[in-house]
Design goal:
kinase; phosphoprotein; about 10% strand; innate immunity; alpha+beta; two-stranded antiparallel sheet; 5 domains; RIO_dom; single chain; 13 strands
């Protein structure tokens, strides 16, 4: 070897045996050092009176360490760096997308695969003491708060006072409470950093979370109510039907017979093992709809009924339907006692009414509208309906209020009255208007069918009630006027203002001096007395 500045001496070659001897010498020296160190350490322990086994030689290098261990360490460091880079990339992706419905993914730029990341997490290589410290922060603050005595404060060792209203402690506890909000409330990573929240902010978030939870429940209830309005069978109704079957009143429920504006009619079979009473073999289950958008005027049929006046009040729609079902049950029982053909009540529970089935072999009796009858049968049906209307008014003290060919069933030569939930008593305000409407429906139907000698609705009204329709309307008009003044109607003196005004008005109407008109529900204006022509 040569150099322009100096002459470098050629190094002498080293013998391989000398190299081996140096390695052997180092090994022997290392053993001697270990032996001497153990001896000295033992003497020191004996001098101090400590008798314990020798600690492991942790300060000495691993004899089995090779270049492979360095490679494994390098790979682990590289993987940890890749995961940190991917985590930063994930945060950037979330920040870029935000709440947008269309998101952009940076997965192609990641350095570590998801499987590798999960393996490292399972092996414990990614445990970060700082993250553990952040999660333990909530527990630490909670413990510090619990050790505060009942006086509301405590003194630290350095002399400072800590109260239960400490801002740092209160803010951290509020952040911990926020993490317990419902899953649909997006709280974010509140434990990933030192999050503190004032009472004002926490209360606002809590109120907002409660309102959102209530709104979601209302939306769920609306969906269920919509299903109830369409089919009448919601979850509560299914439970009721299930209990009726468990009580052995019904054996099974087959299917839907019809769907009306106020209820759904189901066919069912009674349980033969029921021993408390003799049940009809086939039954009808009438499920009233708890949400009614098609029949909103139902309150006019029940609000003035003395049987339910005290129980109406400000009821929910579901509880109002309970009263409606109970009213139909009482009306059917009253009709059954006076001998009017109608379904027999079997069982009532809330808005589910079980009745006897008019028909046989799962085939319901046809409505009078759809029944195929000859002339003699139509004439017989006409006389039956007229007679039943008289019995209903005179003996049962009821007015059907919705009598038509759609609510009369023809079965084995008899006319059965159904759907009497809206039936009212004669004392009900507007009941005679309902009766006149029933008379018109019945007379018009049989006139269309060609039944001979069908009387006029006004004459039918007189045969049923024994008085003219105009007289009844005049009486109802006066009663409705003084209905809001019970102190005038309850006077014991016969010369009360109510009696005087009614008698005076009635005499003027009879003499033709007064022509008065009254508007009946859903009917044209009807003159009470026609003024004689001059």
């Amino acid at each position: 070897m040569s150099s322009p500045w100096a002459k470098i001496a050629t190094p002498e070659p080293v013998n391989f045996e000398d190299i081996l001897s140096e390695e052997i010498a180092k090994e022997i020296q290392s053993k001697e050092d270990q032996k001497y160190a153990k001896k000295v350490l033992k003497e020191l322990r004996e001098a101090e009176g400590i008798n314990s086994p020798d600690p492991p030689p942790i300060l000495f290098a691993d004899e089995n360490a090779t270049y492979k261990s360095d490679e494994a360490i390098a790979k682990m460091l590289q993987k940890q760096y890749d995961l940190e880079y991917d985590d930063m990339l994930k945060k950037t992706e979330n920040k870029f997308n935000g709440d947008s419905k269309v998101s952009i993914s940076f997965s192609n730029y990641r350095r570590a695969h998801d499987q590798e990341a999960s393996d490292l997490e399972e092996d414990g290589f990614l445990e970060d003491p700082s993250e553990k410290r952040d999660w333990d922060r909530f527990d630490y603050v909670e413990r510090q708060f619990n050790i505060i005595p009942s006086c509301g404060y405590r003194m630290k060792e350095d002399g400072t006072m800590v109260t239960k209203h400490d801002m740092v402690m209160s803010g951290t506890r509020n952040a911990c409470k926020m993490m317990n909000f419902p899953p649909d409330f997006h709280t974010g990573d509140g434990a990933g950093f030192d999050l503190q929240m004032s009472n004002k902010v926490f209360n606002s978030l809590k109120i907002y979370s409660s309102k959102e939870e209530a709104r979601r429940k209302r939306m769920k209830d609306k969906k269920e109510d919509r299903a109830t309005a369409e089919f009448g069978i919601d979850q509560f109704t299914r439970i009721l039907l299930f209990k009726i079957i468990n009580n052995r009143i019904l054996e099974n429920i087959n299917g839907i017979i019809s769907i009306g504006k106020e209820a759904v009619i189901l066919h069912a079979e009674s349980d033969p093992s029921y021993s408390d009473a003799i049940l009809p073999k086939e039954c009808v289950v009438k499920v009233y709809k708890t949400i009614l958008s098609e029949f909103k005027q139902r309150d006019q049929y029940i609000r003035d009924d003395y049987r339910f006046t005290e129980r109406m009040g400000k009821q929910t729609m579901r509880k109002t339907m309970y009263l409606w079902a109970e009213k139909e049950m009482h009306n059917l029982n009253r009709m059954k006692r006076v001998g009017i053909p109608c379904p027999e009540v079997v069982y009532l529970k809330h808005h589910v009414l079980v009745m006897s089935f008019i028909g046989e072999n799962h085939k319901p009796a046809p409505k009078l509208k759809n029944a195929t009858l000859d002339e003699c049968e139509y004439e017989d049906a006409y006389h039956q309906v007229i007679e039943n209307m008289k019995i209903l008014y005179q003996k049962a003290k009821l007015i059907h209020a919705d009598l038509s060919e759609y609510n009369i069933l023809w079965y084995k030569g008899k006319c059965y009255f159904i759907d009497v939930g809206q039936s009212t008593e004669p004392r009900h305000i507007g009941s005679f208007g309902f009766l006149m409407r029933d008379c018109e429906n019945v007379c018009n139907f049989f006139q269309r069918k060609g039944v001979p000698n069908v009387i006029e609705p006004e004459k039918l009204f007189f045969e049923i009630t024994g008085c003219e329709f105009a007289d009844r309307l005049a009486l109802e008009a006066v009663e409705s006027k003084y209905k809001a003044k019970p102190h005038l109607a309850n006077l014991e003196d016969t010369d009360s203002p109510l009696v005087d005004e009614f008698e005076e008005t009635w005499q003027r109407v009879k003499s033709g001096e007064l022509a008065k008109t009254v508007q009946v529900a859903d009917k044209p204006v009807v003159p009470l007395v026609e003024t004689p022509a001059n």
